[in-house]
Amino acid sequence: MINTKNAKLNAWVKMWADIMQPEKVVLCDGSDAEFTRLMDECVANGLAKKLNEKKRPNSYYFQSDPSDVARVENRTFICSKKKEDAGPTNNWMDPVEMKHIMISKYNGCMKGRTMYVIPFSMGPLGGAISQLGVEITDSAYVVGSMKIMTRMGKCALELIEKTGNFIPCVHSVGKPLPAGLKDAKWPCAPIDDKYIVQFPEEHEIWTFGSGYGGNALLGKKCFALRIASKMAQEEGWLAEHMLILKLTKTATKETKYVCAAFPSACGKTNLAMLIPTIPGWEVKTVGDDISWMKYDKNGQLRAINPEAGFFGVAPYTSEKTNKNALDSCCANTIFTNVGLTPDGDVWWEGIGYDCPVGTIDWKGNVVADPASRDKDENPVAHKNSRFAAPAEQCPAIDPEWENPEGVPVSAILFGGRRPSTVPLIHEADDWNHGVFMGSIVGSEVTAAAIGLKAGVRRDPFAMLPFCGYNMGDYFQHWINVGAAAKDKTKLPKIFFVNWFRKDNGKFLWPGYGDNSRVLAYIFDRCDGKGETVDTVIGKVPAAGQINIAGLTDGTNEESMEKVLAVNPEDWKAEVALIEEHYAKFGKHLPKELRERLDSLKKKLGM
Ligand code: GTP
Ligand code: SPV
Ligand code: MN
Q: Looking at residue 1, what is its pLDDT?
């Protein structure tokens, strides 16, 4: 058992150890030595490979079970007392019933394994916006990943010992290890036996059966979004699926911080680390996935990144698309489901050079003839393969990224993958109009979750899989946060962007580093500069306002007109889809949003 200075923590661990019956219990200290020891144990037991020390020091390679490659939304539950409080977009089960089922799963689930106890902080240690948690897990992969993704170990434990406050996070891969048997390469439970469960009223997380990312690194989606969104509703702040970046106009050294919510695998990591292709601008990274925002005493909304690492999509990360992400993975990184090259390095589609013959693909097969592989049907790296890399290794990390007070937010962006209808950028008239924009975000589905139907789905605020309570009440919370602003002029300006509009199957906008051209326009709009044109959905830039100088991909005045176009017929069809989407929320839909939709319909003559 463990013997910390906090009796509540000791008793909680003992209770779970009695149920799960691990061979031993280990309190993690978060040291570099512990990381290397645990990862080397995984290597010795056949669960991981150590990468070439010369090329990628202190880095490890894992292949998951083919059933365990992404989040599992149909196995994710919000267990509030009342079904209505989970709302129409979440799976719900009665908390008592769920606990009953899960305790039977947890009974003896760690036999033959070690129970690791991971104290961690989301956000800078001791910061006013930060929160503490403790995860118990039987996965060394989870311990290693939590070391990268959170402030973990002794430093967090000391704070927990002082206050006794922590969010309890329970995890097991759900596969006891009978004595004498060799462990699986990636132990986990079958797909229908995976449980990702949040108890929002109790601020507690129980998960079972998956070892993957958002299912198992409980500080991330389970805590920092599902539970934190509920805490934020109770306490008047915001917990969002957003990157945070700093934009600097180098001539004047003026800076602005921007938060952006895009659905999973829709470009947050890329935008957060972007290298501008236009002179005079610099981008620094604060976070790439999650933003917690609170008003300071002057009424300024400030954001922190609660994480300490990046759990990024590997495919198509290259020197050209995202050099800063690639450089962040240079050492001390865990890779999952990418390709393993014969010289002990990693490879993925779109890394920028050909796949070496003899590379092992994510399923463990040798790639004998790389040129003959279909990169879409049978990729070497799974489409949701990921790296977990320490944020401090990012060359573009903002010196302010660990400021416990957070950074002041000037603009909020919403977006998704929309092949049609939605222009490159449009601007909200005011906060509530921005909330309307967030509430109607839609996107083509990606590989970040298992088992979703292809096509565009509504993903309001990019929070569809991550809101810990009724999404209608969440919309209302956003309206309330705007109304609570002491000084409305200090509220961030809200924009909607779409890097993914197509014409004849081809992207109309080059994206990636060229998104700096849109960021520059946003910067000026925050200062009230720049020329706009009013459309039915909001302000779009007037012709020539987005700098396209030097673009050689075919972008010209004509393509800009297409990518910025707001076509009333498209929007009439969109309104019908929004109606359908809104109908789900019944009386939980804020009247302010209904009014916005009605006003859009009126403008469209509907
Ligand atoms: P999560 O970690 O799942 O939350 O994803 P994310 O939002 O951080 O997405 P990420 O930046 O990892 O991008 C996902 C995919 O979108 C990658 O394959 C990128 O290459 C692609 N992508 C990112 N930005 C752009 C862009 O501006 N244009 C285009 N066409 N593709 C992009
Ligand atoms: C996402 O799916 O939005 C991710 C990856 O950031 S995961 O941590 O698996 O949720
Ligand atoms: Mn994400």
A: 82
**223, 98, 233, 204: which is closest to 588 by C-alpha?**
233
Please name which of 453, 477, 461 lies closest in space to residue 592, comparing C-alpha atoms. Answer: 477
Query: In 3-state terms, what secondary structure has residue 219?
Result: helix
Task: Indicate the CATH number of 310-393 among 2.40.160.20, 2.60.40.1120, 2.170.8.10, 3.20.70.20.
Answer: 2.170.8.10
> Is the minimum distance from the CB of 209 to ligand 1 under 6 angstroms?
no
Measured CA to CA in angstroms, residue 388 lies from 151, 195, 272, 474 at distances of: 14, 23, 16, 30
Residues designated catalytic: 266
**Contact predicate 176/334, CB 8 Å:** no
Residue extents of the structural domains in the chain: 7-48+74-236, 240-307+398-566, 310-393
Q: To which residue do tokens 């805490």 refer?
A: 231
336-345 tens-digit pLDDT: 999 999 999 9
Q: What angle do CA 375, 319, 508 make, to 5 degrees?
A: 65
Q: Class assignment of domain 7-48+74-236?
A: alpha beta
pTM: 0.98
432 lines ligand 1 (CB under 6 A): no
pLDDT band at residue 105 under the 50/70/90 scheme:
very high
By C-alpha distance, which of 565, 510, 569 is closest to 543?
565
Q: How far is the CA of 143 from the centre of ligand 2 (A)?
A: 17
Distance 448 CA to ligand 2 centre (A): 6
How far is CA 323 from its chain centroid?
20
Q: Whose CA is nearest to atom 12 of ligand 1?
A: 313
